[in-house]
Amino acid sequence: NSIVTRDEDSTLELSAVTVLGSVAKGPPVGALKSDGKGAGVSVLTKAKATLDGVAILGAWGFGMYADSGASLDVRRSFVDATRAPQGAEPAEAFAVGLTVIGATAAVSDVTITRSSQAGVLAGKKGRLRGDHLLVRDVIEGSIASTGSALTVGENADVDLDASVFDGATSSGILVTEGAASAIRLARSVVRR
């Protein structure tokens, strides 16, 4: 991973920073592994992170990733060209701009472009709140991926205002199987 914070007392603050994905070197090492690997920013296990004016370019697998009770606050930031990890089996290839799994994320004035599988993925009691989120140009990344701008899974809670989901290969919003999820979009546009 490019930048990781984890554990309950960890706090990360990034302002006016560019995070560049590594350049792939040599042959793949195995499923989801290569010399060119690593998420842009990962916030794990109850850690907290604030990103303001951050650009994440060419990350592997995940542009931004929050899980297990973590808290992620993102403002005026940009995620572009998240790439599937090298060496992944075709059915497992993915590249998601923002993933919120069992964590809480707040976004404001955030743009996510050119991901595959999903621009934004929330699930397993993940909570996503915010406004002015632009997700566009999401492609199907593999045999099993969806190519949706927003994918909402089990027990997720999404509440967004003045947001745009545009240019996804298969769907603007995909709600997957599992226990009840809640999605609220206000003053927003969803267009495939």
Short description:
With 192 residues, the protein is mostly beta strands.
As a percent range, the share of helical residues equals under 10%
Q: List SSEs in N-to-C order.
A: EEEEEEEEEEEEEEEEEE
Number of helices: 0
Please state the structural category: mainly beta
Any overview of this molecule?
The chain has 192 residues and is mainly beta. Helix content is 0%, strand content 52%. It has no helices and 18 strands. The chain has strands at residues 3-6, 11-15, 18-20, 41-44, 48-52, 55-57, 62-67, 71-80, 95-101, 104-113, 117-123, 127-136, 148-152, 157-161, 164-166, 171-175, 182-186, 189-191. Strands 2, 3, 5, 6, 8, 10, 12, 14, 15, 17 and 18 form an eleven-stranded parallel β-sheet that branches. It is globular and about 35 Å long. It starts with a strand and ends with a strand. 42% of the residues are buried.
Summarize the topology.
Blueprint: E1 3-6, E2 11-15, E3 18-20, E4 41-44, E5 48-52, E6 55-57, E7 62-67, E8 71-80, E9 95-101, E10 104-113, E11 117-123, E12 127-136, E13 148-152, E14 157-161, E15 164-166, E16 171-175, E17 182-186, E18 189-191
Parallel strand pairs: 1-4, 2-5, 3-6, 4-7, 5-8, 6-8, 7-9, 8-10, 9-11, 10-12, 11-13, 12-14, 12-15, 13-16, 14-17, 15-18
Key descriptive features of the protein:
192 residues, mainly beta, eleven-stranded parallel beta sheet, seven-stranded parallel beta sheet, 0% helix
